[in-house]
Fold this sequence. Notes:
The structure holds 2 protein chains of 2 kinds.
Chain A: H1 2-12, H2 15-40, H3 48-65, H4 71-100, H5 104-124, H6 157-175, H7 177-187, H8 189-194, H9 199-226, H10 237-247, H11 252-276, H12 280-303
Chain B: E1 6-17, E2 20-31, E3 35-39, H1 46-53, E4 61-66, E5 69-71, H2 76-81, E6 84-87, H3 99-104, H4 117-131, H5 146-159, E7 164-168, H6 176-191, E8 195-200, H7 203-209, E9 212-217, E10 220-226, H8 232-240, E11 260-270, E12 276-286, E13 290-294, H9 301-308, E14 316-321, E15 324-325, H10 331-336, E16 339-342, H11 356-360, E17 371-372, E18 375-376, H12 378-391, H13 408-421, E19 426-430, H14 438-453, E20 457-462, H15 465-471, E21 474-479, E22 482-488, H16 494-501
Parallel strand pairs in B: 3-8, 3-9, 6-7, 7-8, 13-20, 13-21, 16-19, 19-20
Antiparallel strand pairs in B: 1-2, 1-4, 4-5, 9-10, 11-12, 11-14, 14-15, 17-18, 21-22
Helix pairs in contact in B: 8-16, 13-14
Bound molecules: adenosine-5'-diphosphate (ADP) and magnesium ion.
Magnesium ion binds near residues 46 and 47 of chain B.
Amino acid sequence: xxAYGALVYSAFGSVNGFAETMVKACPLLLAxxxxxxAFRARFWNIGAEGQIYAGGIMAAVVGIYITGLPAVxxxxxxxxxxxxGGALWGLVPGYLKARLKVNEVITTLMLNYVIILLAGYLxxxxxxxxxxxxxxxxxxxQTAWLPTVIPRTRFHAGILLALALAVVVYWLLExxxxxxxxxxxxxxxxAARVAGVRVGRTIILTMIVSGALAGxxxxxxxxxxxxxxxxxFSPGYGFLAVAVALLGNLHPIGVVFASVLxxxxxxxxxxxxxAASVPVPVIFVIEGLVIVLVSARFFRQRSG
Amino acid sequence: xxxxxxxxxxxxxxxxxxxxxxxxxISFCLEAGEIHGLLGENGAGKTTLMNILYGLHRPDSGCxxxxxxxxxxxxxxxxxxxxxxxxxxxxxxxxxxTVLDNVILGLRNAREPLLDREGARQRLGELSATxxxxxxxxxxxxxxxxxxxxxxxxxKALYRDVSILILDEPTSVLTPQEAEExxxxxxxxxxxxxxxxxxxxxxxxxxxxxxxxTVLRDGRVVATRVTSETTKAELARLxxxxxxxxxxxxxxxxxxxxxxxxxxxxxxxxxxxxxxxVRDVSFQVHGGEIVGIAGVDGNGQTELVQALTxxxxxxxxxxxxxxxxxxxxxxxxxxxxxxxxxxxxFDDALVxxxxxxxxxxxxxxxxxxxxxxxxxxxxxxxQSAQQVIARYDVRTxxxxxxxxxxxxxxxxxxxxxxxxxxxxxxxxxxxPTRGLDIGAEEYIRGLLLELRNAGIAILLVSTKLDEILSxxxxxxxxxxxxxxxxxxxxxxxxxxxxLLMAGTGA
Lengths: 304, 506
Ligand SMILES: Nc1ncnc2c1ncn2[C@@H]1O[C@H](COP(=O)(O)OP(=O)(O)O)[C@@H](O)[C@H]1O
Ligand SMILES: [Mg+2]
């Protein structure tokens, strides 16, 4: 009990605790929204991790190497670059599935490794900061930083962007032609075809949107938190995002709550260990159980 | 083996599923050493009857005698113990295991708890040789063709020493050559003293392989005939039904046929299994006429309709709608050219999890007034749905219910409403009344006539001859992907069509 108290307190009990929870929720939420969009079309995108990296790399490149712009131009450009990077990395498996019927589970998974290794190469080679002793890129120009919203914490504007995008994704799915087509393809692809929905095109657009959202997660990490490209700047947010999306029942608002919950668990792990000497792995076991139970329920529903 | 000894006798079998009576007081008997055909259209109740014999279903009433002893068969396991084996339309195999492992799966052996794979392999080899069933025992199921998988299924039964073998529409998945091999195997079986029940809806097969035929229609036995004493024409008549109900007739308001709405020229299409399913089909449909395509299921109708609606590639030939060449056009393009499509399964046209509002807007949702600048106008969609629901008499509490909750007839009405409420010149209707109750059937037939009278061209694909005869102005018969003949309705009768359907031209 003491342990759980510590968990809750550390996550929400102080301004800083709350800020730290939201800092972790941010990439989970953005990538979780990306996964949600893809899964609603029954496109099993498990490449959010790679799309995060693609977004992070693009944001870093624009944030570091494009100089002489005022912040009002540079920052949006950096964030946009992240979205574009993720979108491109999502477009590849989308295109392969839509046009060549290549199974997306394989391609999205494989593309993760490609881009993670590419990021490693960049910071060990072309993008390495020679002034620093460790392998990291130079800092982004200050004009490309996402501003801090709550002073003396790491709560940055990317978090607000993520929350706003949850509403936008809800609107996209429920109120737009594209969203309608995404849902139609996901629920009954044959009926979609009979009714004249261009299924291949829908899948490609789905993955552009899905990848862009995950790419934004990468951009927010780089421009809001690290301010550099660092090795493994995403410790698997893209994989956790699958669990977040499923726990959120593939509903954008549900995904908001799921991402905060997972973030609290991630941060709480340390606090719990300090307060009640619960070993960190136990937290991971809890997390794993949540993932398994939620996925099991989800897939039973869908196949039943 | 002595003939005339009855090995299976089913008496007064009745079986209902919810509302439908699949078997209605059926009596059937199988004699030793015969090949007994069970003939009937789709849904006649053939599979249900045999599933009862195989212990998969319990009959509501009736009794079963095996070798003159009354038996209560409650599982396939018991059926097999009584010497009854069945090969289903859908195989029951584990794809990731080998042929050998699939055959011995679930069997006991002398060396337990170890598997006796050596002994099994030997036995399987002998069976393969005896029955000319060539399969590699070490091949994995997933590597095999459908024909091979069927052989495995038969071997499974033979391995279990059955004396009665039930084959459910075995040729439906086979190429003609494979079918010949199957027939040879069946003859070996009876020569060795087995009895075979052969389910089919193909007259030709019933005539060529069986000794006797029992014809089922609408869950009832219509007749049992000695094959050598009957004709294809008689079987066709028995199978389809003599008393055709001309409840609706299209004689009223026969508008003269209008301009050509659909022109199909030497069309070819390939089935999912890679065989040529539509062979050089050519025909025209004019505005204001209903052209029917009659035929036994599985003779290329599905592929033809899909090729016409852009859902399947056209290998060669042309499809012209209203003067515009739409060969291999995308479904959306064809739809926007004024073609309505009622697919053969209404679940292929509706999204079960969507509301009626969403389903009714599925075809035009991206155009005004349903949407503008990529944003849906829900209010317009809702109002339009309300109107359509009223006009087509869809029975539903309101327009926001999920499509999957509707009855079959109402689902089909929603599909027809969507496909005909936009401006169309041509309607392609595949089995529009399949699986519907009389009321819905009646309504939909009436609607087709109304549309025809309004000048729309209609292509009606159906296996129901009474439907074809009562609705169509012209009738085409399809058999093995070819059009076998064309006749005006005044020249058509069941016998003539039945013969064409069976592949023997009049
Ligand atoms: N398990 C089931 N549940 C509900 N209805 C069924 C079931 N099996 C068969 N039916 C219905 O019973 C009727 C006869 O079906 P079936 O025996 O499969 O016919 P056949 O094999 O002659 O094509 C059909 O109307 C079918 O829809
Ligand atoms: Mg059947």
